Amino acid sequence: MPGFPRRKLSGLALSLLTLLALTLACSPGDSGTRSIALDEGWSAFAIQNAEMEAELLRDLRASAAGANDALPWRPIETTFNPQPASALKAGEPRTVWLRRALPAALLRDADTALFIPAADQTLELWIREASRPARLIYRSVSAGEGEAHDDPVRFAGYPWHMIALPNTAGASAEELLRIRSAHSNIGIPGTPRVGSRAQLQLELVR
Question: d(Cα 200, Cα 19) in Å, to the nearest integer?
Fold first, then answer.
């Protein structure tokens, strides 16, 4: 092809072949490959002060999934501006935790990922399994533990998050999202989804 570098042509062909492979592997006719919308079954815990969050972290690190929680988790209908967070004062750094059971069958696949369309404003993902306490497996650019790294004003916009999930999780595994915001809104706008990374990437570009 005159005027078109062979190296660029090879790269384009490789990209097209990769996209074709993803399309064939994640065909809409194969319902077993579709991702699962995590649009219900959530509960929330709004943090009022540092002592309350310290108590929550002690509980998460000391108990496995399915344990009886002494803390007041509340069922919610939406992950965006959940009801318990309404009592927190907007314009100041505030924290809300969201939790939900994860689909057990998908967690046996090493390619399983969690897709978060956006977070308002910073995000951490913790996983708590039946056999072990909670552990932190993902942190957005601005989020962090401790006062020196926990200022939501430093958040880096509203990117989506594609997070690999551990394939050691069992039937009672839970995901826990720790979200901080100094904005008038807090939480996850849109619907989180879980599935194979390839399928989630394909759904993202459709």
Answer: 13
Question: Which residue from 98, 100, 101, 112 is spatially nearest to 165, judged by alpha carbons?
Answer: 112
d(CA 17, CA 22): 9
Q: Is the dihedral of CA 64, 65, 68, 69 positive or negative?
A: positive
pTM: 0.74
Structure tokens at 193: 């989804």
Tokens 């092809």, residue located = 1
- Of 146, 87, 96, residue with least CA distance to 121: 96
Half-sphere exposure of 13 (CA within 13 A, CB side): 7
Euclidean distance between CA atoms 79 and 107, whole angstroms? 22
> Tokens 């005159």 — which residue?
2
Helix axes 6-25, 197-205, angle to 10 degrees: 110
Of the candidates 126, 134, 138, the one whose C-alpha atom is nearest the C-alpha of residue 177 is 126
Per-residue pLDDT of 76-121, as tens digits, reads 999 999 876 666 665 567 889 999 998 876 666 778 899 999 998 8
How far, in Å, CA of 66 to CA of 64, rounded? 6
How does pLDDT run across 122-161, given as a tens digit for each residue?
899 999 887 778 889 999 865 444 443 455 446 667 889 9
Is residue 117 helix, strand or coil? coil
